[in-house]
Amino acid sequence: MRVFKFGGASVKDADGVKNVVNVLKEVGHENTLLVISAMGKSTNAMEDVVNAYFKDKAALSSAIHEVVKYHNDIIMDLFENDKHPIYGKVKALFEEVQGFLAWNKSPKYSFVYDQVVGYGEIVSSTIVSAYFNEVGITNNWLDVRDFIKTDDNYRDATVNWEGTQKRVTEGIDRSRLNITQGFLGSDENNFTTTLGREGSDYTAAILAYCINATEVTIWKDVPGVLNADPRYFENARLLNNISYREAIELAFYGASVIHPKTLQPLQRKEIPLKVKSFLNPKDPGTTVGKGIGIEPEVPCFIVKKNQVLMKLSSLDFSFIVEDSISELFKLLHDHRMKVDLIQNSAISFSVCVDNKFGRLQDLLDLLKSRFKVVYHEGVSLYTIRHFDAESILSLQNGKEILLEQRGKETVQLVVK
């Protein structure tokens, strides 16, 4: 059985949904499980609903209306019959969102976030499934929350592999075309959890692992895995083949095509991963697999923007050693800071972090009681895998370098 994952860009409008049908007609859809993301930027729109709920109740109705209208417009373009049952199904789903917000008593943002934002995937996959049936592609819609079980670490849940394996083994009919959602799971109380932004790729890998899939294909609006993000770098080149190890390295450093967690379960069972274009589905794309190196051998550029660089120094010129570093990492963990680079000397410790949960100020207040702290917000972290002199010079040109770190295969630059 194969697993296909279609991201938000592939189903952002009616033409996109129709194109997914064309892709399946070209490459086949027998014994396939489809993982569908939220449509277009609707995850952002659902986040606006959550933010309005907490910060601006007067804007809540308008925020929900925008999401509903966006999906209804797609439905109207897909279904000629304005009495089609899909209208009622989608209306009922958004009424569930409104009902939850009406009775919810939890003040916890992350909990509310997961209960609300996850409807982007539920609605999207419901529309896609209904359209497939409309055009003669019979399918089975599955609620992924019935299968992927997690802890209750909302917005970044950890998978319960044993519970997930049992449900997938018992509950998925492999003889049919199945359609489900990415990004989502559920905890032991059956509340919705999410696997982190861009977690739909990870969902595909989890399900592939549990069903012993023959391969996973992630369908993107790019030809495959490129050696650089074409939004930020000119002359990006397609990587035809890369090993699991290399792909994990690229994902760890922030390559946006593959989610960092996606490759680990695939590598454990040596399930090949293909990254292909939904615009040109017959093109070969990129294959990620066991022991196939990287081809062609070219420098790979990765950039993470809006990072925070902190330099900590001891107040009394004492060494920053194991006890201090252990305490620092505990603070970073407690404040949910994603550490992207560290560098330390005898009396200083520099760290570049992603403040995605907005808890920087609380962390700084604690650090300033123990250390001298200098920090820079809004910096960019550039990483070059398989660097050469020319590739480094191309990044250094005209930029203020705040920190540089080199290894055998990788160089990292923090740039203002």
UniProtKB/TrEMBL annotation:
Record keywords: Amino-acid biosynthesis, ATP-binding, Kinase, Nucleotide-binding, Transferase
The keyword Nucleotide-binding is assigned to this record: yes
EC number(s) reported in the record: 2.7.2.4
InterPro entries associated with the record: AceGlu_kinase-like_sf, ACT-like_dom_sf, Asp/Glu/Uridylate_kinase, Asp_kin_monofn, Asp_kinase, AsparK_Bifunc_asparK/hSer_DH
Gene Ontology MF term list: aspartate kinase activity
Cytoplasm recorded as keyword: no
Transmembrane region(s): none
Domain Aspartate/glutamate/uridylate kinase residues, every copy: 2-276
The protein's name in its UniProt record: Aspartokinase
Protein species of origin: Sediminicola luteus
